[in-house]
Amino acid sequence: MKTILNVIWLVLSGFWLFLGYLAAGILLCITIIGIPFGIAAFRIGVYALWPFGYTVVDRRDAGGPSCVGNVLWLILAGWWLALGHIFTGIALCVTIIGIPLGIANFKLIPVSLMPFGKEIVRSDQPFATR
User: Fold this and answer.
1) Distance between CA atoms of residues 11 and 98, nearest Å
2) Backbone region of residue 118 per phi and psi (left: phi > 0; alpha: psi in -120 to 50; beta: other values)
3) Which of 12, 17, 68, 72 is the most exposed place for a label (fewest CB within 10 A)?
C-alpha cells in the first residue's frame, strides 16, 4: 500500500516539492556557512520525494546548536518550503482521493519549519537509535 501511495505522491506533488528542496539546498550550499542548511534541505527533500514508510523522530542528543540552526533555517528557507506544503496540501484535499496525500503534506510542515534535531527513520523502527 505504501508503494502505491508513494507513486501517486510522486506524480502529484512529491517531485515538485523535491525540486523546491533541491533549489533551496543548492542556494544554501553556495556559502560555507550554509552547507549544514543545504544538507538538511537535501535530507528533507528526499523524504518529501518518497514519504510513506518513513517517519520523523526527535533526536535525543540535539542541543542548543540545533535550536539556533532552526531559527536561522526558519528565516532562510523554512517558511517558503512550509508554504509549498500548505498550498499543495490544500490542492490535494480538493479531491477525495487526494485527501490522504494532503494530510501527509500537512504532516511535513513541522519538519520543513524546524529540521534540526530531527531524524528520518523507517516507520517500522521509529525508536531505533543509530
Assistant:
1) 12
2) beta
3) 68
Provide the grid cell at 41: 534541505
Nearest CA among 14, 66, 64 for reference residue 37: 66
pLDDT in tens, 59-111: 888 788 888 989 988 988 889 889 989 999 999 999 888 898 999 899 899 99
Q: How far apart are CA 43 and CA 25, in angstroms?
A: 9
pTM: 0.82
Q: Is 115 exposed, middle or buried (0-12, 13-18, 19+ CB in 10 A)?
A: buried
Burial of 129 (0-12, 13-18, 19+ CB in 10 A): exposed
Q: Which residues sit opposite 26 in a β-bridge?
A: none
Q: Report yes or no: 66 and 117 within 8 Å, Cβ to Cβ.
A: yes
User: SS3 for 119?
Assistant: strand
How far is Cα of residue 54 from the mean position of the Cα atoms in its chain?
A: 11
C-beta of residue 111 within 8 angstroms of C-beta of residue 40: no
